[in-house]
Amino acid sequence: MKILVVDDSRLARSAIIKTLKEEIGEDNEIIEAENGKIAVEKYEKDRPELVFLDLTMPVMDGFEALKQMKAISDNSYIVVVSADVQEHAVEKVMSDGAIMHIQKPINLKKMQEIFKTVKLLLTIKTK
Amino acid sequence: MVNELKFNEDHKEVLRELMNVAYGSATAIIAEILDAFATLHVPRIELFHDSELRDYIIGKMEDDAFLCSQGINGKISGESIFILNRSSMKNISKYFDLDDSATDDDLNDIATELTNILSSTTVGKLAEQVDSMVAFSPPSVHVVNKVSVKDDLKMKDYSQAIVISTSIEFEEEHIYGDLILFMQDESIVWIKEKLDLIIDEYL
């Protein structure tokens, strides 16, 4: 699976990648981006199947990046992983096409929840 | 002891992300109370010693500001200070249906409540992320100006201060505040050890 991890914090990206590897193993292509603008460019070029997207970032925030990614292609599953847990923020990203909003910091239990949802969506999609 | 109290760039980077998570939780609670949507910005983390902190704060102050302080006890031990300029405080008061005739007592009440939430949620969430817990004393608020703030920032009790500076935009109202954490030297040594563990694991 090709996975794009977007966060301005090296720590946050590293935590996502580490728990990702614990959950689904090493055999995946992981791409990193440190802001929304770079993320949109990599999204267009690499077409990942799964995206982990932060919201509060410099240059371009996750809200805008989500909209631009969805406009490029609707084929990826986008999971928002953010410290912004306001009800309004959650509603906005879900209505803009994210499949989940997860509160930071990420841990293995949350990653398992994400993959349960992704597997379920993949099953529905292939039926 | 001096070296034991210094934060390197990796420490600051990890602290920035931990504070980002902590501040996000606090903002969500405040947004719910004000029934408004806040736009969060990436917080800036800066470490200051005595005179540097005073110069920084005075440089950002308008004529006067509300200085809200709260004691912290636990592995992270010290004091948190939240500084809000009067214009930001007036903007906040609009969410409580107060107009320009709001008195300092009205504004003090609001500042006390907000500080209690902001500081206890932020520091509590920071402690949680480094597997610890903290207790808080009741907050106190008073109005300071550029002259009196020098005495109000009791830097003499601490060797350095961590300043988390961020602005929060609540829809049309721009609210700017600095949250300053003063930690006892033993707490700085302790939290650095915790940050080192995170650095070893993730960076």
Number of strands of chain A: 5
The overall number of domains of chain B is 1
Distance between the termini of chain A: 20 Å
Could you give the order of strands across the largest sheet of chain A? 2-1-3-4-5
CATH superfamily of chain A: Response regulator
Count of discrete structural domains of chain A: 1
Q: How many individual helices of chain A?
A: 5
Number of strands of chain B: 8
Radius of gyration of chain A: 13 Å
Descriptive tags:
heterodimer; A: 127 residues; alpha/beta; Rossmann fold; 5-stranded parallel β-sheet; 5 helices; 51% helix; B: 203 residues; alpha+beta; Chemotaxis protein chec; 8-stranded antiparallel β-sheet; 6 helices; 8 strands; 28% strand
Structural notes for this entry:
- The complex is a heterodimer of chains A (127) and B (203).
- Chain A has 127 residues and is α/β, with parallel strands linked by helices.
- Chain A has one domain: Response regulator (Rossmann fold), CATH 3.40.50.2300.
- Helices cover 51% and strands 19% of the residues of chain A.
- In chain A, helix 3 (62-72) links the parallel strand 3 and strand 4.
- In chain A, helix 1 crosses helix 5 (108-126) and helix 2 (36-46) runs parallel beside helix 3 (62-72).
- The radius of gyration of chain A is 13 Å and the shape is globular.
- The two termini of chain A are 20 Å apart.
- Chain B is of the alpha+beta class.
- Chain B has one domain: Chemotaxis protein chec.
- In chain B, 46% of the residues lie in helices and 28% in strands.
- In chain B, strands 1, 2, 3, 4, 5, 6, 7 and 8 form an eight-stranded antiparallel beta sheet that branches.
- Chain B is globular, with a radius of gyration of 17 Å.
- Classes of the chains: A alpha/beta (127), B alpha+beta (203).
- The A-B interface holds A 8-12, 14-15, 18, 55-58, 82-89, 103-105 and B 13-14, 16-17, 20-25, 27-28, 31-32, 37-38, 40-42, 129, 198, 201-203.
